[in-house]
What we know:
Elements: H1 6-20, E1 30-31, H2 45-54, E2 59-63, E3 66-70, E4 74-76, E5 80-85, E6 88-92, E7 96-100, E8 105-111, E9 115-119, E10 127-130, E11 141-145, E12 147-156, E13 166-172, E14 175-185, E15 190-196, E16 199-202, E17 206-210, E18 218-221, E19 224-228, E20 231-235, E21 254-257, E22 260-264, E23 276-288, E24 291-295, E25 299-300, E26 308-311, E27 317-318, E28 322-325, E29 328-331, E30 335-347, E31 350-352, E32 358-363, E33 371-374, E34 377-379, E35 389-394, E36 398-401, E37 404-415, E38 423-425, E39 428-438, E40 449-451, E41 454-464, E42 481-483, E43 500-503, E44 510-517, E45 520-525, E46 531-537
Parallel strand pairs: 1-2, 2-5, 3-6, 4-7, 5-8, 6-9, 7-10, 8-11, 9-12, 10-12, 11-13, 12-14, 13-15, 14-16, 14-17, 15-18, 16-19, 17-20, 18-21, 19-22, 20-23, 21-23, 22-24, 23-30, 24-31, 30-32, 30-33, 31-34, 32-35, 33-36, 34-37, 35-37, 36-38, 37-39, 38-40, 39-41, 42-43
Antiparallel strand pairs: 25-26, 26-27, 28-29, 43-44, 44-45, 45-46
Amino acid sequence: xxxxxxxxxxxxxxxxxxxxxxxxxxxxxxxxxxxxxxxxxxxxxxxxxxxxxxxxxxxxxxxxxxxxxxxxxxxxxxxxxxxxxxxxxxxxxxxxxxxxxxxxxxxxxxxxxxxxxxxxxxxxxxxxxxxxxxxxxxxxxxxxxxxxxxxxxxxxxxxxxxxxxxxxxxxxxxxxxxxxxxxxxxxxxxxxxxxxxxxxxxxxxxxxxxxxxxxxxxxxxxxxxxxxxxxxxxxxxxxxxxxxxxxxxxxxxxxxxxxxxxxxxxxxxxxxxxxxxxxxxxxxxxxxxxxxxxxxxxxxxxxxxxxxxxxxxxxxxxxxxxxxxxxxxxxxxxxxxxxxxxxxxxxxxxxxxxxxxxxxxxxxxxxxxxxxxxxxxxxxxxxxxxxxxxxxxxxxxxxxxxxxxxxxxxxxxxxxxxxxxxxxxxxxxxxxxxxxxxxxxxxxxxxxxxxxxxxxxxxxxxxxxxxxxxxxxxxxxxxxxxxxxxxxxxxxxxxxxxxxxxxxxxxxxxxxxxxxxxxxxxxxxxxxxxxxxxxxxxxxxxxx
Length: 544
């Protein structure tokens, strides 16, 4: 009898194994089923712990479809890959499902579909993946792909200030379902952060919350965060939160693009100072293409189309950014987008019905601040009725252009500081009380350039913070119209007040200006005393 060729038999066996299991094409590795003799009842704790102990560095442990319940936390202290077939679920009711202590590169990945990590513990310290006990100087890399994580906290790294840091953290194509926080890390260094194309649901108060120094920068792109209670995305550094204290030094670059923050903010209590859709502190910041929708903390005022309030005990209500209690000033604030940054582009974002004190706030400090804020679409429906604004510019050497803003209950642009050399041009503002609020006092805004903006249904285009109209011509200058005859001039009206026009002919030119003359608006010849024939009754002053 002819003996089969051993090579051929091995090849056939390998092919059969590959058909039966997706992971076989990725091995060498270990199927967790080979440790089934160590399972006690339905408890896989000892089996999986033994597999982790036996695995050499960078080994693959494969979990076929099925439920794997463990009663004890799994400790990971080496580089290892946990590979979950679609429908494989690792779950526990212990305080943590997985605790990472050290290691090289730790990969947790689903293949053929999402694997699942679930912590069903009722402990207030419960987490799915604990990185709060990493050993000093260990800095393991953590990569999670195509996985579903569910628990009180999905990735916990906030509570232990003496822990070791992390290396590169990557989360991609995942689903987070958290009751308290999706993922967070505080104080020790994280080499870099990348969170992409993932969805965050549940009732968490915080979403992507990393306040650690990140020398390799952060990339947070293409994610959807739904109904996060207080802060959807926060990237800020170390122990400092003020520019003068060095808060920008912890994050040398950040790309926060194309995320969606859908709903949220309602987890804030009256004593909660801030809510944020997206907050970033750092250098070289890109915040582009994000959508922040219905992220706010108040409720609409009955009968009012814009502006919100906070209902207090009894029949009282709160409508501003401060409250006074026992001579202490407590801030009640919030923004859709908030950046403390140097060298930043904040563009092409859509922020609707979001924020409280502001919609977009930008602060740069005094050292090398260069910022562009452009082509954003912003409305003020959810802003506080009093003391709120669509944009806050606490900047130097910045450009604000091409923004579309509407329905502002108070200010549209709050321009802060002295001699900051900011430029505001080609912005369009519909339905607002004040277009630009500049600092009060003599010559406080002379180095700001505010021109070529369009105001439609804006009560006061330019005013000081104390409500007085701004008189400086360097602040509010519209380019002159150029026509060949007065018959081509548009009808004078309130929105054209201050508009100049040049009437050209072969011999000489005539300069005219639209002014209010008693009860009507007219085009007045600046050379002759008689006004041009075109007039229009002055619009009545708005009633307070």
